[in-house]
Design goal:
Layout lengths: L1 E5 L2 H10 L4 E5 L5 E2 L7 E2 L5 E2 L2 E2 L4 H12 L3 E4 L5 H14 L4 E3 L7 H9 L6 H28 L10 H16 L5 E10 L7 E8 L2 E2 L5 H12 L3 E13 L7 H12 L3 H13 L15 H15 L42 H17 L5 E12 L3 E12 L9 H5 L13 E13 L8 H10 L8 H10 L3 E4 L2 E4 L1 H13 L8 H13 L5 H22 L8 E6 L7 E7 L2 E6 L8 E3 L2 E6 L7 E6 L5 E5 L8 E2 L7
Parallel strand pairs: 1-2, 1-7, 7-8
Antiparallel strand pairs: 3-6, 4-5, 9-10, 9-15, 10-11, 10-14, 12-13, 12-15, 13-14, 16-17, 18-19, 19-20, 20-21, 22-23, 23-24, 24-25
The chain binds one DNA strand through helix 3, helix 5, strand 19, strand 20 and strand 24.
DNA sequence: CAGTGAGCGAGCTTCCGCTTGACTT
């Protein structure tokens, strides 16, 4: 009897299905050891010795593993093939405490991959484990030293960390960009033209004036050009047709899946991940927390045979498509997110969220199949027109020749570049002038982040991991650092104050490149080329100095309040302001602490309560920070709902 | 379903990354 230990119980179940009776499989449910929650757990005096303890909640799993290991001849530690997985394997080995353990890794869950791995066992890679320790200790030092500083200098209960604080920083700085943005006026000018005698017209936009890019700044300039152009001869200078090839998107990762579900279904990352978790547990999709775009050979073969059968040879490229993982921080522990069986188009999904499950499954199915299909082909035709040999105008449009993969999965490009009618014309041909179009426009500020764009940006910066994107968003909302306004993130006064304090005093730690630099150092440790204690010491010494100075010298941070423009009804002298407390926003008197008047701040939905029809629907927060909808007449009316009543 | 802010100063808050449940207001 041999024992295989993996991280996920679902993975354990899948493995035991295709392994014979000689193997038993157990799961750790993630990490089994960690630093203590209630204290630092890092002995700085003793070279940063970490105090890894068994996690209370994992006692049950450890017991099961221990008893199973007693019956086993060999124990294969098959946690994920990355830094964290190596640490888990090391921790399990410490607990089992005998020489029967072997470390194995596999990158896909198939019989072949598992047996191949078993044939190539190795020892625990202590360099990789050391890299995990360095990562853990660094995050603990940053989080557990800076948070208490915030309690002292800003407010109790706040938090700071390598990941969450940068997420807040992105949102705060974007808001400032928007506030400081001055829109600039510009004009778009186009001529509506037609082939001589043709009834159908087309639009050519002004691109150049005297061979320089046309930049029309104001109405006077626009009017002059329009006057000029109105009586002009329009001559075709050039006609060209070019074939455009459009390749499919790579298969989903956690980041791209949450982005697509957000764009297409309007789902939060939390919702997408929980629906994906169910699909994974039902054996319908591969693991949903991954940054890899790798696909198993056999899955690709199945996909190809389905494409051949359902869509025909034209839709099947000669060679299978291979996707290289772009993300620098990727650790390739898992495959891309794909359906397990491409031939299963519409599985029966169970439970309360059956509809959502099916919706997400179909999206993953399409994305996976599409990624192995032929490219889409377009003809892009461009007509260059001149007027007075001073003005250059351009009309372009494309027609699809072959839909390829877009027959399954809509390309974003298709919706933005609509098919435009362009006539058959020849060089030198004179066109009929119909009329001039002009339109005033303004440059736009960058958009606020939503969950999708925030996750995308964090991933590009290498900050956070697939398992933490959704939880990080929950954290910064729960702490009231940011709030959502129509799905977009807006920083609160607290979030802005905390961010400015951190960035001003610890610019290196919250620099957008800090994590990338940390990863480089961790790689050196993992390769055995550097010692983790030295790396941590290099960070710690200047950091500790700064901590001390700032703790002594920094002033307590004042948090800006938003005025409501009303007098305080109690003292009649102060003004009412909005403050953000531990439980969200509330209204109070600006003369606090001299006047202690407070009032509830209610975010109204402009909708009557569906139950009593008298009160208004208001947004509230539970003690745990979760948003819900309730009636403003509470406790007279106890109507409440998790979901937005407007969306029914 | 009251509480939040300041400061008094009991005792407590806090990180990131692995994994799943529990499951309501």
């Amino acid at each position: 009897m041999n024992l295989i230990i993996v991280e996920s119980p679902t993975k354990a179940r899948t493995l035991s299905r295709f392994l014979d009776k000689d193997y038993s499989v157990e799961a750790t449910m993630g990490h089994i050891k960690d630093l203590p929650k209630s204290k630092l757990g890092v002995d700085i005096e003793k070279d940063f010795e970490p105090d890894y303890l068994l996690i209370e909640k994992r006692k049950k799993e450890i017991q099961k593993i221990k008893s199973a290991s007693k019956k086993a001849n060999l124990i294969f530690l098959a946690s994920d093939p990355d830094r964290e997985g190596e640490a888990i394997a090391a921790h399990v080995k410490e607990e089992i405490g005998n020489g029967k353990t072997r470390r194995i890794v596999f990158h896909e869950i198939s019989k072949e991959a598992v047996f191949e791995a078993i044939k190539n066992p190795r020892d625990i890679n202590s360099d990789l484990v050391n890299a995990q320790i360095a990562r853990r200790v660094l995050d603990r030092l940053v989080g557990y030293k800076l948070s208490p500083l915030l309690w002292k200098k800003v407010r109790r209960g706040l938090s700071a960390g390598r990941v969450q604080s940068v997420a807040v920083r992105l949102i705060v700085e974007r808001e400032r960009e928007i506030e400081n943005f001055t829109p600039e006026e510009y004009w778009e000018i186009a001529a509506e033209l037609a082939k001589s005698g043709d009834k159908k017209t087309f639009i050519a936009s002004l691109t150049k004036i005297k061979d320089k890019k046309a930049e029309v700044k104001n109405k006077n300039e626009a009017d002059d050009i329009v006057k000029d152009l109105s009586g002009a001869d329009y001559k075709v200078e050039d006609v060209s047709t070019r074939e455009i090839r459009n390749n499919p998107y790579p298969p989903f990762t956690t980041s791209t899946m949450t982005q697509s579900a957000s764009r297409l279904f309007g789902w939060s990352s939390k919702k997408t991940m929980s629906v994906a978790q169910k699909l994974y547990e039902e054996g319908l999709i591969t693991y949903h927390r991954t940054d890899s775009t790798n696909l198993s050979r056999s899955a690709v073969q199945k996909a190809r045979s389905l494409i051949q059968k359902e869509f025909g040879a034209k839709y099947l490229p000669q060679k299978e498509r291979v996707y290289k993982t772009k993300s620098k921080s990727a650790q390739e522990a898992h495959e891309a997110i794909r359906v397990v069986d491409p031939f299963l188009k519409e599985p029966e999904t169970k439970g309360r969220f059956a509809n959502d499950s099916l919706k997400l499954y179909k999206l993953i199915w399409k994305r996976f199949l599409a990624c192995q299909m032929s490219e889409a082909l377009y003809d892009r035709k461009t007509i260059i027109v001149s007027a007075f040999s001073k003005y250059t105008l351009k009309a372009s449009g494309q027609t699809m020749k072959f839909d390829g993969w877009t027959t399954l999965y809509a390309s974003i490009k298709d919706s933005s570049e609509s098919v435009i009618y362009l006539p058959e014309v020849k060089k030198g041909e004179i066109l009929d002038f119909i009329k001039i179009h002009k339109e005033q426009r303004f440059t736009q500020p960058p958009p606020r982040f939503n969950e999708a764009s925030l996750i995308k940006t964090l991933e590009q910066l290498g900050i956070g991991r697939p398992s933490t994107y959704a939880p990080t968003i929950s954290t910064i909302l729960f702490r009231n650092y940011v709030e959502k306004d129509e799905g977009k993130f807006v920083p609160t006064a607290i979030g802005t104050a905390v961010n400015d304090f951190l960035v001003k005093n610890f610019p290196e730690v919250f620099d957008y490149g800090f994590t990338a630099e940390m990863e480089e150092n961790l790689d050196k440790i993992a390769e055995g080329n550097s010692q983790w204690k030295i790396t941590i010491k290099k960070f710690w010494d200047p950091f500790a100095n700064k901590l001390e100075v700032i703790e002594q010298k920094a002033e307590r941070v004042k948090i800006e309040t938003e005025k409501l423009g009303k007098k305080c009804p109690e003292c009649k002298t102060g003004e009412l302001v909005i403050r953000t407390g531990r439980f969200g926003k509330f209204i109070s008197c600006s003369r606090f602490p001299d006047c202690k008047y407070t009032e509830k701040y209610e975010q109204k939905l402009k909708m009557k309560c569906p139950e009593c029809k008298k009160g208004e629907v208001v947004i509230k927060k539970t003690k745990k920070g979760r948003k819900f909808f309730g009636c403003s007449r509470y406790p007279d009316c106890t109507w409440a709902s998790w979901t937005d009543p407007r969306k029914k």
